[in-house]
Amino acid sequence: MFIEQGVNPENRFWRYLVGLALIFTASIVGQVPLLGAIFYETISKGKAYPLDNEQMMQFFEPNLTLFLILISFAFAMLGIVFVVRYWHKQTLLSVTTSRKEVDWGRVFFSFSIWAGFMIVSTLVMYFMSPDSLVFNFKPLPFAILVLIGVLLIPIQTSTEEYVFRGYLMQGFANLAKNKWVPLVVTSVVFGAMHLSNPEVSKMGNIIFVYYIGTGFFLGIITLMDEGMELALGFHAANNLIGALLVTSDWSAFQTHSVFKDISEPQAGIDIIMPVVIIYPILLYIFSRKYQWTNWKEKLSGKIEMQQDSNNH
Fold it and tell me: How would you label 232-255 residue by residue, b for 16+ Cβ within 10 Å and e otherwise?
């Protein structure tokens, strides 16, 4: 069973707090190239130092900004590998899945189904609202974006999944000895992590319904499927296809995407719809395909303390 694989007498909760601090430190080290580039520009060219997230996102050319931001996640991922392997004495597989090896078919199925939905819905929006979504395609910048995105965005999304649906899910299981506390806490913290996103100031706190709802969706599919594969695929598709398809002056990522949203942002049905309609449909599709049963036990059952680490 996936969440139980990290539950053993040696894995006290304080060890996860220390591990989280180490992972965070690795991500800070990964921000050195971005900070170094900013200091170089301000000193050598006299540019004003960016004082907030919006100014920083517009400080460099979009592809360079994206590359420098994503580098920190590669360092964080190395931090996760180090903490899991040497601090907790677990294998990376044990915080990825309960299966004997990663099921890449699940990763690609989840990626494909969400990528397909995003592409179709974006095209529908473009043809229905040509005044708000304009064609923004520039071949060379877009090709560079594809290269950066394909190489680094899956690392960014996988880092977030390993922290929330893998590492912390098992960490809170050690603390609570049940499954519903890890699900609730990691989902809420995942949503709160997006507090600094520019979308929050533009749309208001209602957007946390989407962020926290997405956290719950990813947590549910991880617990029901006994592994992170579906969550890894979904999250990678969400950020990669999103970065390639649509950008705006107020989004978290400024990219040379195919389309640009020039409408005034407002929280409408499109914020609530994924949580109350689209995610339940996806849950139904996944549950049918992978024959999920015993929902109550998998999402809220008690966890017995293991006498060994149950590592593969």
Answer: bbbbbbbbbbbbbbbbbebbbbbb
CA–CA distances in Å: residue 24 to residues 82, 193, 257: 12, 13, 30
Rounded CA-CA distance 231/248 in Å is: 26
pTM higher than 0.90: yes
Dihedral angle sign, alpha carbons of residues 38, 44, 45, 48 = positive
DSSP string over 103-116:
-HHHHHHHHHHHHH
Q: How far apart are CA 246 and CA 242, in angstroms?
A: 6
Q: Three-class SS of residue 248?
A: strand
| Helix then strand then coil, % of the chain, to nearest 5 | 70, 5, 25
231-278 confidence digits (pLDDT tens)? 999 999 999 999 999 988 777 778 999 999 887 766 667 788 899 999
- Between the alpha carbon of residue 185 and those of residues 179, 190, 231, 234, the distances in Å are 10, 8, 17, 20
Per-domain boundaries in the chain: 3-300
Residue at 115: amino acid letter = A
